Amino acid sequence: MLNIAQYISYGLGIYVLIGLVFGLYFITLGLRREALAGRGIIIRFMLLPGAILIWPLLLKAKT
Amino acid sequence: MSHDYVPVQWNRQKYFYDAILLAAVFIFLVIFIVAGTKTEAGNMMILMIRSFGACAIVLLHLVLAIGPLARLSDRFKPLLYNRRHFGVITALIGLVHAGLALMMYHGMGVINPIASAIGGYGNYGTLIEFPFESLGLIALIILLIMAATSHDFWLSRLSPPVWKGLHMSVYLAYAALIGHVALGTAQFDKSNGLFWGLAVGAVLISGLHISALLKGRRLDTQADINTTWVNIGDPMSIPLNKALTITPQNGERIAIFRHAKGISAVDAVCSHQNGPLGEGCIIGGLVTCPWHGFQFDPETGEAPAPFTDKVQTHAVKIENGNVWVNAEPDPFGTTRIAIQVPS
Ligand code: FES
């Protein structure tokens, strides 16, 4: 059980790390293609936690 | 209020709401900790863990109660205005609880704290050794995702159906949290008070949701809903600038409004956060959602410029003095000129 728990915890860590890299990309370069382009830095940072947590959903191009 | 996101500004009412919420949270924590030191002379760290945990549970109950309460009585509608701030604070309080608990109970060993919490020492095969922390972690992850995506930008970015699906998982978080607390109490605390408190909370939340659902059904007109064209009856039975609603057999609720231009029908579910559009009214010629005030043209289902939100329209006709509505929605953006009511 301990092994599985460790794999899950590493999985969570890796997910969040990828999310952090993706999230930083999203709130800087990624938002250029969104309606939010040119908005302030505070709102971009408000969006960072969401981008970190749901990055797989954001990989899909905006339709 | 836009499909392409337009930021909503903070205003005095929002600051006021948040100030009251934060003050209430602070008072709750202080009372919990002070009462705890008086009754069991407990360890301060344990009291903090419990106080933040209890606060998160109470807040989650309130978050879940606000929606049905607002449907049952207009007096609760102001609480809906900023419900998402409630949710964000609930997730943050839960995060503090989890952080403190990980430090206290799992931070000193050789295994990493999360692995230790979700299975290091427990046994998923028995209730009495079940690692209840794993249920708390599931609830926390869901609450954090909801809090992080509560901003209107995400609603427009993900699309309302995806956003709604994501946010409906609050019920999964609630179930996981009930399991987390019930098992934790059974394993360590053994206090019946908390257990019964949870049971009463669960009954209240279910009762409120069922009552709100029944109210919605009661508001529906008693039309035969098994046909494509549904007979609503006398046009004058629809109150001026308000709607009658029906729930077709295989579809979303429909709101049939009578307004200055005639009779129009649109989906009764708001494209913002699924508010009950059929319980709204016509203001300035526009269907206005009772939850956060989004507006839609009753003839096109579209929000006024510069907003781009949409709901679907439905065809309406008057035959033999009765109003009929087509249960099949039109494609988004279809214009249906309001049907004049014969005088
Ligand atoms: S649900 Fe927010 S305006 Fe309708």
How many domain regions of chain A? Answer: 1
**How much strand of chain A?**
under 5%
Structural domains of chain B: how many: 2
Low-confidence stretches of chain A: none
List the main descriptive attributes of the protein structure presented here.
heterodimer, A: 63 residues, 3 helices, 71% helix, elongated, B: 343 residues, Rieske Iron-sulfur Protein, 3-stranded antiparallel beta sheet, 10 helices, 10 strands, disordered N terminus, binds FE2/S2 (inorganic) cluster
Briefly characterize the structure.
The complex is a heterodimer of chains A (63) and B (343). With 63 residues, chain A is mostly helical.
Give the secondary structure arrangement, pairings included:
The complex is a heterodimer of chains A (63) and B (343).
Chain A: H1 2-28, H2 41-53, H3 55-59
Chain B: H1 12-40, H2 44-72, H3 77-81, H4 83-106, H5 113-120, H6 132-148, H7 152-158, H8 160-168, H9 170-189, H10 192-219, E1 229-233, E2 243-246, E3 254-259, E4 262-267, E5 281-283, E6 286-288, E7 295-296, E8 313-314, E9 316-319, E10 322-326
The complex binds FE2/S2 (inorganic) cluster.
